[in-house]
Write a structure and sequence with these properties.
single chain; alpha+beta; 8-stranded antiparallel β-sheet; 5-stranded mixed β-sheet; 13 strands; 18% helix
């Protein structure tokens, strides 16, 4: 009887493992005003639930005044959920942070970098990406305050924004922040 129970448990866990996505297989796309995680349009209504169904359990959750931070160390991601005036979760995403270079140590920052794919307007985002290539790719978006900065670019389109953060003089992409305006 024990062997049957163990065998059933093993089959159940094997079934679960097929539903988990690996950090290398995760994919984001931002194109024509649509922000996609796998096949889900995140910015359709910015619901947290479908995103969490894909990413599963966060490594840690941090409550703060401006939101709940779900940090996924293995994915190099932080998902921020909005809170209302009483600091209660709303079930809506305010921002997804994708980290290509590790940030300063903080509870909300992942301990590993993003290993999946992220395409923005056809440009594959990666650590080795220069600020000029991002500027060219994002030409169909409205620039927000780009004053020739070497470290940040901000864009908006169709109710969402994307902020690109670079190291030093714009030689490496550090992080991408995508959220609702």
């Amino acid at each position: 009887m024990k062997k049957i129970g163990i065998a059933l448990l093993a089959v159940a866990f094997a079934g679960l493992s097929f539903k988990l996505i690996s950090p290398e297989k995760i994919g984001f796309t931002a194109k024509d005003g649509k922000f996609m995680l796998e096949k889900i349009q995140v910015n359709a209504d910015w619901s947290l639930q479908p995103v969490m169904e894909i990413l599963k359990n966060p490594t840690r959750t941090t409550a703060a005044e401006k939101g709940r931070y779900f940090t996924y160390d293995d994915f190099g991601l932080t998902v921020i959920e909005a809170v209302d005036k009483e600091n209660k979760p709303t079930g809506k995403i305010t921002e997804i942070q994708v980290h290509f270079i590790l940030q300063k140590t903080a509870d909300i920052n992942p301990k590993a970098t993003f290993k999946g794919t992220f395409k923005s307007e056809g440009l594959e985002l990666a650590k080795e990406l220069s600020i000029d290539k991002v500027r060219n790719a994002m030409s169909s978006w409205t620039s927000i305050g780009d004053s020739g900065s070497f470290t940040e670019l901000h864009y908006k389109k169709d109710g969402m924004y994307m902020r690109f953060e670079f190291t030093g003089r714009g030689h490496n992409l550090r992080s991408v922040y995508a959220g609702r305006e």
